[in-house]
Design goal:
With about 130 residues, the protein is mostly helical. It has a domain of about 55 residues. The protein contains five helices and no strands. α3 crosses α4 and α4 packs across α5. The longest helix has 30 residues. The N and C termini lie far apart (about 85 Å). The mean pLDDT is about 85.
């Protein structure tokens, strides 16, 4: 510490002592407060729940209309993907890269990779050679 800091600390201590003396001269009294005492929270009592292992038939079965709708949507997805596969192979044959193909057909690179993997399309990444029979 520098001498200047020591002097400032001494001055501040003198001011505090003067303030304490004035407080006691004016009739001030020091009151000691109780210290904090930790009291844990009471234990929680949750009500017992009845566990039922039997599923209701309405929960685990779909209606025939829902099943038919799901089958129709599944078939539509397959048809959409087959159209994309045709476009992908055509773009690949025209010399486009995977990135360019993904941008052209409007899917992400990862989406294109998944379609390629699912349908077994031979579309090499950059720097790989195409496995021709």
């Amino acid at each position: 510490m520098s001498d200047n800091q020591i002097l400032i600390g001494d001055q501040r201590q003198a001011q505090l002592e003067a303030a304490k003396a004035a407080f006691f001269l004016s009739g001030g009294i020091v009151t000691e407060l109780e210290s904090y005492s930790y009291k844990p929270l009471p234990a929680r009592h949750e009500p017992q729940r009845k566990v039922s292992l039997q599923l209701k038939p309405t929960v685990c079965r779909r209606s025939k209309a829902e099943e038919a709708d799901r089958a129709r949507r599944r078939e539509e997805r397959k048809q959409r993907e087959l159209r994309l596969v045709e476009r992908i192979t055509a773009l690949r044959d025209s010399g486009l890269t995977r990135n360019e193909t993904a941008a052209q057909i409007g899917v992400s690179y990862n989406g294109l990779s998944k379609i390629i993997d699912r349908n077994g399309i031979d579309f090499p990444k950059r720097g790989e050679s195409r496995g021709e029979p």
